Amino acid sequence: MTRMIRRTGQELARIPRLLVFVGYFAYALVVASLWVAWDVLTPRQRLRAGIVAMPMQGRTPMEMTLMANLVSLTPGTLSVTINAEPNVLYVHGMYQDDAEAFRQELQDFERRMLSAVRIHDRPSRTGDMS
């Protein structure tokens, strides 16, 4: 019974993190859309396309698939493939002036996504794991 109550509490604690991530993703989506639209509407070419390999922190197929799908939903980026061993996501980006900075943005995005979707198991203060 204690485990069920604890599990329910952990699920409920995830809701605010999920809402924060949804807001973050919506903001990123709008900014990326405006950036691509601006590039299409102006005559100057800003494209610096390339592909980066990003080591993934996702452990489950759901986490890796969610990350790949969120990247592909964002204008200007596209998931190319995922290598399962080791977990590496290859991402095509339209605006890559600096591949390492782009990789860091993707890793920050994944960290935020994982924080929102994972249940954070915290032992109780008394150390009781029942």
Automatic annotation (TrEMBL):
Provide the transmembrane region boundaries.
Answer: 21-38
The record ties this protein, via InterPro entries, to: Cation_antiport_E
A GO term from the CC aspect: plasma membrane
Q: What is its main location?
A: membrane
Q: How does it sit in the membrane?
A: Multi-pass membrane protein
Keyword match Transmembrane helix = yes
Assigned keywords, A-Z:
Cell membrane, Membrane, Transmembrane, Transmembrane helix
Q: Which GO terms describe its molecular function?
A: monoatomic cation transmembrane transporter activity
Give the subcellular location: Cell membrane
Family annotation (PANTHER family):
NA(+)/H(+) ANTIPORTER SUBUNIT E1, NA(+)_H(+) ANTIPORTER SUBUNIT E1
- Which family does the similarity line name? Belongs to the CPA3 antiporters (TC 2.A.63) subunit E family.
Please give the name of this protein: Cation transporter
